[in-house]
C-alpha cells in the first residue's frame, strides 16, 4: 500500500505569524483535533484545537510555540506505523515530512483507517475468534499451528488486550469448522473469549445445566 498517495495538502498549514483568531476560525470550519504550523517554511509542530481556544485572539501563534506538539511521520512510513502514531498522539491528523524535514502535507485518520478496511483481515469473509492465555505461555507460532492443523487458513491476528499478565489475541480465520478449532485451542489451555453458536463444548454445558435444573425442580 503506497501511503504517500493519501497525503493531503489542499489546505495550507498555519503560519507562525498568523493570529490566534485566524486559527480559531480555521478550526471552526474543520473537524481536526490539530493543525500544522510552519515558521519560515519549516514545520515547527501542531497546534491543538483545545489549546488554541484558550489563547488571546490578537496574539500570533509565534507567542505560543511552546504549546505546539512536534509529532509527524515520514513520507515512506507504512500504514501500521502511521496508525500507531495516530493512536499515540490522540489526533485525527498526522503531518508528513520527507527525509530532509520538508513539510509535505498531512494524513487524515479516516483515510488510513480505510486502508485497514481493505486488508483481508476485514474484507475477506471468515470467522473472528478471540482467545486468551498467560503472557509467558502463548506464542504466535503455536496459534498459527492450531489453526492450520484444522485445515483452516489464518487471515490475520493481533494482540487486542493485555492485562494482569494475560494476553488476548484476536484472529480472523477463513470460513471453516470453527468448532474444531475452538476445541483445539481449549486443549492447548487457551480460554475462548468470543462466543460461537457452533461451540459444542458450551452447547453441551448448557444442555446439561438445563437438564440438571429440570431434575432439581422435580
TrEMBL record:
Residues 72-116 form the CBS domain. Gene3D superfamilies: CBS-domain. InterPro entries: CBS_dom (IPR000644), CBS_dom_sf (IPR046342). This is CBS domain-containing protein. It comes from Aquimarina amphilecti.
Amino acid at each position: 500500500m503506497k501511503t504517500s498517495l493519501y497525503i493531503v495538502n489542499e489546505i495550507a498549514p498555519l503560519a507562525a505569524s498568523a493570529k490566534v483568531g485566524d486559527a480559531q476560525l480555521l478550526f471552526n470550519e474543520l473537524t481536526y483535533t490539530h493543525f500544522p504550523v510552519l515558521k519560515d517554511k519549516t514545520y515547527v509542530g501542531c497546534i491543538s484545537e483545545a489549546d488554541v481556544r484558550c489563547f488571546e485572539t490578537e496574539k500570533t501563534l509565534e507567542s505560543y510555540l511552546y504549546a505546539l506538539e512536534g509529532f509527524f511521520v515520514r513520507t515512506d512510513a507504512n500504514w501500521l506505523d502511521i496508525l500507531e502514531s495516530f493512536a499515540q498522539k490522540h489526533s485525527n491528523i498526522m503531518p508528513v515530512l520527507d527525509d530532509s524535514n520538508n513539510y509535505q502535507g498531512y494524513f487524515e485518520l479516516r483515510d488510513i483507517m480505510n486502508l485497514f478496511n481493505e486488508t483481508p483481515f476485514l474484507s475477506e469473509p471468515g470467522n473472528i475468534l478471540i482467545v486468551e492465555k498467560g503472557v509467558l505461555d502463548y506464542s504466535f507460532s503455536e496459534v498459527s499451528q492450531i489453526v492450520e492443523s484444522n485445515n483452516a487458513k489464518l487471515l490475520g491476528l493481533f494482540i487486542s488486550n493485555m492485562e494482569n499478565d494475560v494476553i488476548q489475541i484476536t484472529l480472523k480465520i477463513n470460513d471453516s469448522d470453527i468448532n474444531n478449532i475452538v476445541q483445539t485451542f481449549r486443549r492447548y489451555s487457551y480460554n475462548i473469549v468470543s462466543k460461537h453458536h457452533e461451540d459444542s463444548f458450551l452447547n453441551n454445558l448448557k444442555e446439561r445445566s438445563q437438564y440438571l435444573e429440570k431434575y432439581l425442580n422435580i
